[in-house]
Specification:
This protein is α+β, with helices and mostly antiparallel strands. The protein is built from nine helices and eight strands. The longest helix has 27 residues.
């Protein structure tokens, strides 16, 4: 059973506001499972019975559009929680959660989350702030789709992936993504992403090795993507 101490002690964790008794209750009620790459944690439109904490690995959250095309909305990594908004709104899951890097995921029942929201004001504020930050990112994405070119959106995506996940020992992005995954984040066709990444490679902004991507000039990438 993975330890929750890291989450309890992290400054930016919502669980840091729990009392000792609430932390012990959470430890007692949670269950954990190992997921392999490619496994689904929950499906879009399913009825949630709780929310999930990522202890290890990477999970992509996506919506399914026309002809089954994915629109990736978020990548969850260690310390992130997923599925909580559907629990609080009492609605079906609005995304599908799929493991893209072997993961350890903890499950917390719905009733416990709702009890914590009712009983702990600080926890409630943390949950509200987290939901507002996610809404802010969604609004920014809508603005990007309307105002930025595909190349600008691609540059912004690559810059943010590097910022959020860092790089491996040999300097490549520390997240396993296909070109189709990247296209599904940017919101364009896979062929367009392949062509534009070749342009960035020719401009010496990035380096490509199979699926792996190395950021050579973060400043140039940030400028192209209009990241502030």
């Amino acid at each position: 059973m993975p330890s929750c101490d890291d989450c309890f002690n992290k400054i930016d964790s919502i669980f840091g506001s729990l009392t000792k008794d609430e932390q012990e209750k959470l430890l007692f009620e949670k269950s954990c499972k190992i997921y392999k790459k490619g496994e689904i944690i929950y499906h879009e439109n399913s009825r949630p019975s709780g929310f999930y904490c990522v202890n290890k690995g990477i999970v992509k959250l996506y919506k399914t559009g026309i002809e089954g095309k994915e629109q990736i909305v978020f990548f969850a990594k260690r310390g992130d929680i997923i599925g909580y908004r559907s629990v609080l709104s009492n609605e079906n899951s609005c995304t599908t959660a799929k493991v893209i890097d072997d993961a350890v995921i903890c499950f917390v029942p719905s009733y416990l989350l709702k009890n914590l929201v009712k009983q702990n004001n600080n926890f409630t504020i943390e949950i509200m702030q987290m939901a507002c930050r996610e809404l802010g990112k969604a609004n920014a994405y809508i603005a990007d789709i309307a105002q930025k070119t595909v190349k600008e959106r691609l540059a912004e995506v690559l810059y943010n992936l590097h910022k959020d996940f860092g790089e491996t020992d040999d300097g490549y992005l520390n997240i396993p993504l296909t070109r189709e995954d990247i296209a599904n984040i940017v919101g364009t066709a896979t062929e367009s992403v392949i062509r534009l990444m070749s342009e960035l490679k020719n401009e010496k902004v990035i380096e490509l090795k199979g699926r792996k991507i190395k950021i050579l000039k973060k400043g140039d990438l940030k400028k192209i993507g209009g990241v502030y």
